Amino acid sequence: MNYEPAAAPADNTLRILSCNILAGASVKRYHEYFTRSWGAVLPGKYKLGNLDTLARSIADFDVIGLQEADAGSVRSGFLNQTRYLAETSGLPYWSHQPNRNLSNVAHTANGLISRAQPVEVLDYPLPGRLRGRGVLLARYGAGREALTVAVAHLSLGVQSRQRQIDFIADLLHDRPNAVLMGDFNCPPDCPELRSLFAHTSLAPPAHPQPTFPSWRPQRAIDHILVTSHIEVDRMWTLPAAFSDHLPLAAEIRVPVAALQAAA
Questions:
Q1: pTM of the model
Q2: Thinking of the domain 13-262, which architecture would CATH place it in?
């Protein structure tokens, strides 16, 4: 079933959503990481139902960043989950960044779904002790006023995460209209992110939203960060359908020229 997407906003507001979707698997308690570990490597109809539930939610947004989507492997029934969510929600543009392929058993990816067509989408592998992390960067419009959207999933280790954040800071330091979202695996006041805020015009969230674990959210490790030219009207979490992270949503106001580029 396809879902009718909401109309694009009439003013200079964009609706943004960031989701770590755990490749469609269900985890609702810590012990299920072990008792339902089969879900990490085996396909199942329940995963498709989980994706359909998420598709109903993302149809209301303009730009969606995905982490831990499967690019097509055994565990997803060889389904590209980013493409499936885009087509099922009725949003026309999607791109993905496959990062870690474990012998076709699991093929982890970042994903981008949007209402408007990006002018370009760039795929950057991130540095770190272990390979398999990346940042997906999309540009809407041209010139200084272009809107840049970046989707990233950062490492668990502090040293690798610092190198990755420094890399992203180099990408975004001269972009006045930028959104960086994803699963950062660290709170907004961690030392690694302080260096990001020092070297770009990205700012920490005014009211961090706990997103992990989804059944009892205590840690704010998923973020939507914007540069100083962009205003955040509100930020909130959506109820978790299945993943161990709550989806993080934001309504942002961008400069008119950037919005026209994104539209």
A1: 0.89
A2: 4-Layer Sandwich (3.60)
Classify 191 as helix, strand or coil: helix
Which phi and psi (to 5°) does residue 205 adopt? -65, 145
Measured CA distances, 203 to 75, 129, 176, 239 (Å): 37, 27, 12, 26
Worst-scoring range by mean pLDDT, 102-106, 215-219, 235-239? 102-106
Q: What is the mean pLDDT of residues 197-210?
A: 95
Q: Report helix, strand or coil for 195.
A: helix
Secondary structure E strands in 89-168: 93-102, 106-114, 120-125, 134-140, 147-153
Q: CA distances (Å), 98 to each of 92, 246, 258, in order?
A: 20, 22, 28
Give dist(CA 208, CA 188) in Å, integer.
Answer: 7
Enumerate helices (H) and strands (E) in the chain, giving the number of each: 6, 11
Give residue 4's pLDDT.
Answer: 58
pLDDT of 35 higher than 50:
no
Structure tokens belonging to residue 4: 């009718």
3-class DSSP state for residue 198? helix
Closest CA to 165 of 212, 202, 219: 202
Q: What is the pLDDT of residue 42?
A: 53
pLDDT in tens, 149-202: 999 999 999 999 999 999 999 999 999 999 999 999 999 999 999 999 999 999
Q: Rounded to whole angstroms, how far apart are CA atoms 77 and 54?
A: 18
- Beta carbons within 8 Å of 67's beta carbon, 6+ residues apart: 18, 19, 20, 21, 110, 111, 151, 152, 153, 182, 183
